[in-house]
Amino acid sequence: MWNEIKDNDDYLFFIELCRSGKIYEFFMDTYGFKSRKLAKKRFMVMMFTSITEPNLLRNKITNRFPSIIKLISCERVNILPALLQRVESYLLIDNIVLPILNDDNNIKLITIHDSIITTIKNKDLIMNKIKDVYMSKFNLLPPLNETFYN
After folding, report:
1. Residues 59, 89 within the same domain
2. 53 Cα distance to chain centroid
3. End position of a domain, from candidates 75, 104, 129
4. Could you state, in chain order, the average pLDDT of each consecutive group of 10 residues for the chain (150 residues)?
């Protein structure tokens, strides 16, 4: 399936929107969602809803992103959440956290979902490791956010 769509313009545009972190803004601008949070929620509902069930966003994006609709339509929707969780775990735990801790087991960090909490002293090390892993695996730099806690 992927070989059939990987060079399609709509697929490449969708991937570029995802890589740049602008996919939800595109949905807001194009489909009139009032907030990024709502656009993300509608997209997640679409991704995890059976293709046989009606879905407002799927109806809207079918013409703009037919390759994406084709891709998610052929996959078994009920395994998609588990698959995404495994990929996230593989990236975060196996490729980022464990190698950092293997290099220096004195580094203090914890993970929460797709986030890493650490000290300011270790921030650059962890941010660079995340960037290195994403560049080596996907040839992209993910949008990263920093939040400081007292």
Report:
1. no
2. 24
3. 75
4. 81 86 91 91 81 78 87 62 75 94 92 90 95 88 85
